[in-house]
Amino acid sequence: MIRVEDIFVVFYAGTPLERIALRGINFNVKEGEIVSIIGNNGSGRSTLLRFLAGHISSSFGRLWLNKLDITSQSLADRSALFSSVFYDQDIGTAENLTVAENLAVASMHHQPRSLLAPAINKETKDMFFEQLKELDFMGMEDLLDEKVNKISRAHRQILALLIAVIKEAKILLIDEHSTGLSKEAAIALLETTEKIIKSKNITTIMAVSDPKIAIEISDSTLVLSHGQVVSNLKGAEKKNMTIEKLFSSYNVIP
Amino acid sequence: MLVMDSALNIFSLSLAFALVGLNVYLSTKVLNVTDLTCDASVAVGGCLYGALVLYGMNPLVALLLATCFGAVAGFVTSSLTLNINVEPVLASIITLTAFQTFTAKLSSAKPVKGLSSSLFTLSAADNAIISIIIVTIICIIFYKILNSEYGLTMKVFGCGRIISESLGISSSRMLYVGLGIGNALSALAGALITQISGTFSANMGNGSLVFGLAAVIIGEKIVEPKTTRRAIIGCFIGALIYKVMVEVATFGGTQTLGSEYNNVIIALVLIFLMALIQDSKKTHSLKNT
Fold first, then answer.
1. Contact B12/B127 with Cβ under 8 angstroms?
2. Nearest-by-Cβ selection for B150 from A84, A92, A115
3. Which residue of A57, A96, A122, A157 to mutate against B (max B Cβ within 10 Å)?
4. In the 8-state DSSP scheme, what is residue B223?
């Protein structure tokens, strides 16, 4: 479905501060597949995900959606395809709006926006309430009228996930979304994330700080080091991989 | 009778300035853009309306044209921002400067012979009624738009470029529409000011941005802007309070210390008012806990 071909990303090109963040990344993602990315800090995980989302552009290489070259597509053009849930929460949710308003914007993603029809009425609110109740995540359904910058980090990340689901994004990009949460909240978030991804069968590319979880949750695992893919673990190879082996062969710190 | 007339005029002018307040609210609070164009759009709206009426045009058509021209000022600022990549603040200063020539030309308009500009001699009460009708209609439309699906996308635009684009909202179109609507409101305010005061000049827009900001901020202090409706009401209350304060301070200053002390008196009254509001809120919240 998605083919990443020889991607280079260079920051501050041509200046003394020049830094090559990605050096020729290649991989394929099949439809419905869950790909996890592991690597140390500075290995290029976030850069890769931000490139896919369209926040930064590549210096070299191509990004293909099936047979379509989407390398130079803008962020707004890519928005129907990708949806991101990143550590940086401002990327996935609109912070000055309420939870209901965020969901409403996502639900009108594919239709022209009316100038007079109210954005939120009682019916849409009831619908969101039912959906959140069904999801059953830490009392999320009672937060519909709260401003997003007033709700907890875990709730915000779930909201970003829901936005992705509601706007029917084909590919979900996740970057360390459970980092910075308490242990219980992080586990709840990861469980709900997995539930949503598997039930909607969304193609997912995710970076998780814990390599163990990354290997368990995914169909294939990319190991990144210094901006390069050093290993693409699949099937039996991935099954037999342990934290110790990861550490000794790729110097990935658990 | 004279006191009554000037009181009515102050009221209608505060209604007009509340529209500038709505412009400031739209650009700073909703779109999160610092737009200084409104000084220019007030002047252009006022001068264009005045000149067109003096040349014998139907006042309603003139009002509409003036309003549209304000939107043009907004478009100029947004196109400068988007096409030559300058900050909106700088872009609006450029627009402001360029439009000064235009308003200077317009403000030198003389009435055509044989046409009397009877419109500018309407009574204060008539002007007040006209202002109330126009401002009410505009307010309802403004409220409807902000609460609509389209208005919601404007609010998302104010939350940042990345989030709005990843929700499929085109930032450039939002900037055009947002600044266009905002400056159209300011130009309408300018036209109303011309109508109410009966005169217009090239520098009539000077200081209207400060006025609009004051209206928004005072309104925010008095009515907590939890919803769009409260924010709009706050704009009107803020504009009225500020206008009355300015008039009283100007009158009092001229009578006692001399007119050069007017501005410092306005500032002092404003400080006193803010402190008073802050104080009452504090005691209120203490009672609640």
1. yes
2. A115
3. A96
4. S
Q: Which of B214, B163, B191 is closest to B18 using CA atoms?
A: B214
DSSP 3-state helix, strand, coil percentages of chain B (rounded to 5)?
Answer: 80, 0, 20
Per residue in A28-39, pLDDT tens? 999 999 999 988
Q: Which positions of chain A have pLDDT values less than 50?
A: none
- Does A163 touch chain B if contact means CB atoms closer than 8 Å? yes
Task: Count CA within 13 A, CB hemisphere, residue B233.
Answer: 9
Q: Which helix (H) or strand (E) holds B153?
A: helix B149-157
Q: Which residues, other chains included, contact A97 with Cβ-Cβ below 8 Å and sequence gap of 6+?
A: A105, A147, A148, B152, B155, B156, B159
Query: CB A250: neighbour CB atoms within 10 A?
Result: 19
Q: Which of A55, A75, A87, A173 to mutate to test the interface with B (most CBs of B within 10 A)?
A: A75
Strands across the sheet containing A2-11: A19-29, A2-11, A60-65, A68-69
- Mark yes or no for CB contact B166/A90 under 8 Å: no
* A162 Cα to chain B: minimum distance (Å): 12
**Which positions in chain A touch B178 (Cβ < 8 Å)?**
none
Whole-structure pTM value: 0.88
Beta-carbon count within 10 A of B7 CB: 14
